[in-house]
Design brief:
Helix content is about 40%, strand content about 20%. The protein is an alpha+beta fold.
Length: about 140
């Protein structure tokens, strides 16, 4: 039963810009996530390209990397039982139009590109993404 996991969450530029940082953190805490680490940073486009390398062949890759590096973001390590899946559920569908009521993207997402949050999609990628931002 015990399956404590950590996952990487990013509050993306559209949400930081609208001062939604605290509201979104409250949604995580309300669902029992612990915020183990957090920092507000702005990354270079070259770093965004590394972070999103899995998408490098996609038509939206260049715009996505421009966007993620366009303003401050908040990166966090979240911890909870089954945190990876739980975070994906709380985030909602990639396109806010398809997101369920009660999800972060339904509540705050503007569009498929400005969808307010990132979350790791597997335990393996969570480890890679946490290391990417928090390796000492
Ligand atoms: N994205 C986009 N256009 C698309 C699909 C994705 O701009 O048609 C962006 C969107 O910001 C998304 C990110 O690329 O969050 C990564 O895409 P992915 O399919 O991994 O979605 P996620 O895991 O964030 O739900
Ligand atoms: Mg993804």
């Amino acid at each position: 039963m015990n399956n404590l996991e950590q996952t990487l969450s990013i509050i993306k530029p559209d949400a930081v810009e609208r001062n939604l940082e605290n509201e979104i953190k409250e949604m995580f805490k309300g669902q029992g996530f612990l915020i183990l680490k957090e920092k507000k940073i702005q990354i270079e486009k070259s770093e965004a390209e590394k972070f999103y390398k899995v998408h490098e062949t996609k038509p939206f890759y260049n715009d996505l990397c421009d966007y993620l590096s366009s303003g401050p973001i908040v990166v966090m390590v979240l911890e909870k039982e089954n945190a990876v899946l739980g975070n994906r559920e709380l985030m909602g569908a990639t396109n806010p139009k398809d997101a369920q009521e009660g999800t972060i993207r339904k509540k705050y997402g503007i569009s498929i590109d400005k969808n307010s949050v990132h979350g790791s999609d597997s335990v393996e990628n969570a480890k890679i993404e946490i290391d990417f931002f928090f390796k000492d």
